[in-house]
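Provenance

Sequences were taken from public entries as deposited. Structures were produced by running a predictor on each sequence independently, with no templates supplied. The record for Type II secretion system protein GspF domain-containing protein from Paenibacillus medicaginis is shown for reference.
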Amino acid sequence: MNNWLLTGFFFGMFLLFMIAFALIAFVKNAEGRRKSDVFERLFGKRASRHRLNLLYQKSYVQFQRLPLLRKYIWKIRKRLEVLDSFDEYAIRRQTMHIAFITLSSTAILVLLFCLISRDVFTIFFILFGAVVLNGVMITTFVNRVEDRMLKQSITLFEDTRHQFQRTRNVEEAIYEASLTAPHEAARHGERIYEILTADDQHKALDIYYEVAPNKYYKMFTGFSFLVSEFGDRIVRNSSMYLSAIAKLIQDVNYEILRRERLNYLLKGLSTIAVLSVLFVKPIELWAKTYFPVMSDFYSSKLGFFIKVFFFLVVLLCYELIKKLLANDEARYVAKSERLLWEKLLYTKIPLLRWIVDRFVPAPHKKAHFQLMVLIKEANSYLTLEWLYVQRLLLSGIILIGTVFMFFYMHSLSIQHVLHDPLRGTGIFGKLGPDELVVAQKNTDFDRSVLVMLRETAEVSPSSLIPLVSTLTETSSNDATMIFTANRIYQKYVDIQNEYFKWWELLVCLLLACAAFHIPLWLLYFQKKIRYMEMQDEVDQFHTIISILAQFERMDVETVLEWMERYSVIFKDPIKNCLNNYSSGQEEALEILGEEVAFEPFVRVVEKLRLSVEKIPLLQAFDDLELTKEYYAEKRKEHFSRLIERKAFWGRIFGLAPSMYLIFLYLVVPMIYLSMTQAGASFEQIRNVQ
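Predicted structure for Type II secretion system protein GspF domain-containing protein:
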């Protein structure tokens, strides 16, 4: 019957294909070009794109009505809004395109693996991997949009440069360049043209700064505005505006090259770290098949503990890789929001707020100041209170989880003693068919005796002999009877020892204490990663200052405003400096130099201090043009070292779960159990001799 159905299905598909082919031939040949145009409108690529776009727009509206899906697509939309906030339909289309691909891919993978394995623990690993993989896929698609925007910006900037050479008019050059630029870049070019021709240019400029896709568009818009307002100048036999665009294009090319190098070296490492959870069950099945003695290890407490700890290793490595890449690939993404469950627990439970207040250091203490500095240096969205909310909640979750884990491990050991057949001395612990039947019969008999002993106060081998003799109807002096009684007594002792011990509570407290410090360690790691990028941001400051210094009547406050606008790492110190600038220029710059202990940045601040009253800005930074080749080589060397360091740490974190799984879950237990069994075999041979 199934064969007939399959044959009918293929015959029907073939028939539909032939009908479609005949329809196409009929339209093209018999009806002529007009009918062909009608067919194209109905079934062509343009019609397909229109129907797909209509599906995306309707799906977006439907997804907004469901709470979970609404939050999911809003998470994607927030990252896309940074890149293009002018076209609402385009944002919805891209959002749903990414959502459909990620959700469908994740659902298919989860269904396939759940059909392959029905184990609850394995399904839990699969669901965890699916959630993480979904986040990786979203980041990948958003990064593609970011990369496309950067590459299109080069086309817009180069065309603007070419048109300015022809027209010597900034507004007209940007307008002409927007006509031939790719779609996303063209929309920003049109918006920049509207800003330069607006009645209130300053207000329109401030609005665009809030929605610009990246800092390069901000710089391009700002330089274009300055040249449009104050005019262009010839500096060193070259147009000041053309030189500014050339430097901007060089910075964009540098950013594209850095992204490509990082993607080439680090792409897929987070996926590798997460997908390693899918190999837990296959490795376990392979080891049980070819080395049956490993079954005892995987069903033991130690095997379960190693498996759970492997889950924590995967989670930690994924988080570290995400932080390693976040400073490059998601640099301009809006800061993360606090988790919903954190908000609910902290706002709905007054006791938790009271406990957090007891843990947070007082403002006059040194620890309070050190933690505040650490949060700023790590560029974290957290406040001190929310940092301790995370630390306390994570510590409490680990404490409760480990306590339940130990109770489950004891229950697992009891089930192992009661139900698993005894292992013989076969090859690698493998029992033959007859031996397996005997072992299972012995296990069932032992379990029935142990059930009878639950209400017995005192149990000893001597008290078990009469009971076993009665049940088996054999003599109490029989050697086999004595061996059976001792075996049952050993199982009884093993079951009685399976209770929650004091040292297990100590282990739970130590793990909870370690979990309490994990958010703090992540901040230190993020600070270390950001410290690697400080030099890159200082190099970008050099580019901005070298361009701004060419304008007449350029002052230090304006330079600081531009630096604060495009800064990420030094944004807060520069903002504080601007707030204090009116009360004392040199004092504000001196505090800025003391607040940031990074020598290249301090050198920039010292030159700005000289430019306040003593020498012009162009003279203070004249070495940027005189030694630009040196700075270019120095920047290239720093770029190579930064990539190498991130690639080194990325490979470690990406491959750590796989190495843990191979060695601690397979190789080391296999070697240990093989050596133990070999020793037992030699002992039996010696006893026989």
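The chain is about 80% helix and 0% strand.
Residues 1-43, 327-336, 424-428 have pLDDT under 50 and may be disordered.
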